[in-house]
Every structure is written in C-alpha cells, then in structure tokens.
Amino acid sequence: MQRLKVIPQSVTAQLAARHQPSGLNSRFNGGQLAFADYVAHHRQMIAQARAASGASRLEKIVDGNAPFELHPTPASPSGREKPYRRGVLLTHGLTDSPYFMRHLAAFFQEHGFRVMAVLLPGHGTQPGDLLDVSWQEWARALDYGTNSLAAEVDEVYLAGYSTGGALSVYQSLRDNRVRGLFLFSPAFRISARARLATLHKIYSWLIPSAKWLDIMPDRDIYKYESFPKNAAAQTYTLTKILDAQLQQRALNIPVFAAASCDDTTVYTAATVKFMAQMHHPSSKLVLYSTDAENAPPGMPAEKLEMVNSVFPAQKILSSAHTAIVLPAEDAHYGAAGDYSNCVHYYPADIEKYHACNSGDVLQGEISEANLNAGTLRRLMYNPNFAALKISMKKFIDDLP
Fold first, then answer.
1. How many Å apart are CA 61 and CA 124, to the nearest integer?
2. Using 50, 70 and 90 to split pLDDT, how confident is the model at 202?
3. Which of 207, 187, 210, 215 is nearest to 197 (CA)?
C-alpha cells in the first residue's frame, strides 16, 4: 500500500487497457479445486491476461505471479493423522504477488513445512482487476487455502505480508485449526483517509482517472505500480473489522512478527500494540529501527528483538515496509536486482525518477527525512534477512 496523494492532471491521459478490469480476476476462483488444480487454473489465467507481455517474458511473469506449493524434504517429520506434521499458508500483500513469499517459502520447506501460497483476487493480472474486488474475496482465498492445507497437515500455520498479515489474523480469529502466525509488516492500521477513497464513485463515471490514487508505468512484473482507490478502501475496511474483532476476542497462539519503525505504509505502532497483547510465551517481535538502542514503550523485553536498520557502507538509511521478506540476493528486488522502486518521483520529478533508476543512490523508506537526504530508491530487500531466518528458526524450535 501507499499513502494517498493527488494525481496530477497530466497523468490522466495515461489510462490504458491495464487500468480496466480483465474480467478474469475480480472474484475468488478456487471453489472445490484441489490445490494443484487451483495453481494450474491461475497460471492459465495470468498467462491469458498478460499475453501481450510477449513469449520471452511470459513464463517468468506467470512463475512469479501465480500461486504455488512446495513439499517438505523427505527427511521431514510425518504427520500423525495427515501426510505432514506442519504446514504454512503464505499470503502476499496489496498490489503484490506470491513472488514476495518465495524466499520465505524456501525457508519453511527447509524446516519441514508443507507450503502453499495463494494469489489474492485482483492481483497478478492487471491493476484494473482491483477496481471492483472486495476484501471478502481475499478472505475467501485464505479460507480456501487454509482448508486445502488442513487436509494434509496436523498443524496449520499462516504467514502473511502487509495486507496478507491482516488477512491471516482475520482467518485465525475464526478458525481454531490455526496453531500460529508469522506476520511481516502487517497492515493493522492504515491512514483513515483511505476510507474516503470510495467517494470517487460519485463522479468517476465522468472522470475515469478519479478511480486511481496512482497511475504509473507499471514496469514491475511482480507488483502493480498503479494503485486504485478501491484497493485502499477495501484494506481500510478490513483493518477496522479486524480491530473490532480483536477487541472482542484475544488470540492465544504463538505469533512471530517482523516490522520496521520507519514504515510509511502502515502504522508500526499498531503492530507493537498487537504483539504486546500476545501472551503466548513463544511470541516474538523483530523490530527494525534507525535507533535500535531504544525499544518502543509497552513491549515486554523478552518478546522483542531490536535490529539496526542503517548500513552506511551500502547507502541504506533505514528499513522500509517493502524491505522485510526479501534477501539482498534476490534477482529482481535485491542489491543487484533488475528492478528499482522509484515511482515516488513519477511523474512530478522525471529527472530524479531516471536518476533513481540508473544511479548509485541512497536507499531506505520514502520518509521526508530520507527524501531530503538525496535521490532515494525505496529499499526492497532486507540486509538482515539471514538473521531474520535465524530468529524464525528459534521461534519454530520453541513451538509447542
């Protein structure tokens, strides 16, 4: 997710076919399919929606955007009544894709988990498919994935990034089969202005661009850069419903969370508050900060791991909402990756947009302080990813 902002009038002419619904992907399309068939169906859907990308790129696009599954290594423990002991359902964030969960999936597979990753409706095809989607359709995808996983494993865990984290908590509140949670930059609270994003419906039939917060080039093959107002409004509604449910019912399952104090997409204070209320002794919060010596108030020390997010030699000023679940080695978003997140300069400052995409620039969250420091690329990888895996492994080892 991104902060709300006004689209300059000059951008309105850039609406294209990708800014219209494809007709393929605004509703959950899983039904009673076996998970392997669900994956195959969505791979075919993505290939159809993005056929114009060309054959040379299409396989890569489909692989990154499609749901997927991994089986644990043969040496992993078997289940008592099911084929596998533990399984985890991975859910990506808003405007993202399952690509963002690939490295986490490999980690869980290595440690004996059966892995399934869903594709949220509206994602993976074209940004216009988020114009009419509802958060309930996203929840249906998680419910389907949880049921599919529960058929094969004794212990069900959910892992979600950003909006996927909020959806994972929502599922856990209504499903007693969920034994624990892994949350990364969870979207527990976003700007109240997102609630106003639905007001465009009054006049957007006259001005189609009014449906959009951002109209961007959409260069990234695994994440939408264009951002419709409906997506923000649906996430805001989800967070309000989730907050009301958490006030009525406490979770008593182990929760592992990782977040950045520098996050400008979601309010990290809401994550700290949530984790402070998780009373299971195994629960743990890894918190990235430019001031790692000072812990946030209200968080028990035994549940908290503070991590420094500043790497001067790498020109990294801070962590970011987008810089939690991917390692520096990632071929697309990593330190030497083929994509740079510079859309915060587009279209207002094209010169900086090009400099950001091509130069050796600063990296970090797109905060005011960081933007004032010089040309800034939004950090898309976690320099501490190896350490994060160690913390996750300890959490898994301590599970009941």
1. 9
2. very low
3. 210
Q: Tell me how far apart the alpha carbons of residues 103 and 381 are, in angstroms, rounded to a whole number.
A: 11
Taking the C-alpha atoms of residue 81 and residue 161, their distance in angstroms, rounded to an integer, is 30
Beta-strand ranges (E) seen in 143-301 are 153-161, 178-184, 212-214, 227-228, 255-260, 284-289
CA dist 22 → 18, 38, 334 (Å): 8, 19, 31
Q: Which amino acid is at 15?
A: L
- The Cα 286–Cα 376 span in angstroms is 25
Strands (DSSP E) found in the chain: 68-70, 84-91, 113-118, 153-161, 178-184, 212-214, 227-228, 255-260, 284-289, 304-308, 362-364, 376-378
Q: How far is CA 6 from the centre of its chain?
A: 24
User: Which letter does DSSP use for residue 176 in this model?
Assistant: T
Q: What are phi and psi of 399, to 5 degrees?
A: -65, 145
Q: How far apart are CA 158 and CA 182, in angstroms?
A: 6
Condensed to tens digits (0 to 9), the pLDDT of residues 110-158 reads: 999 999 999 999 999 999 999 999 999 999 999 999 999 999 999 999 9
Per-residue pLDDT, 87: 98
Q: What is the pLDDT of residue 250?
A: 87
Among candidates 126, 227, 246, 240, which has minimal Cα distance to 192? Answer: 240
As beta bridge partners, residue 212 has 228
Whole-angstrom distance, CA of residue 151 vs CA of residue 168 = 18
Owner of token pair 């964030």: 93
Q: Give the predicted TM-score (pTM) of the model.
A: 0.94
Contact predicate 26/137, CB 8 Å:
yes
How many angstroms separate the CA atoms of 71 and 115, rounded? 6
* Distance separating alpha carbons of residues 376 and 262, to the nearest angstrom: 14
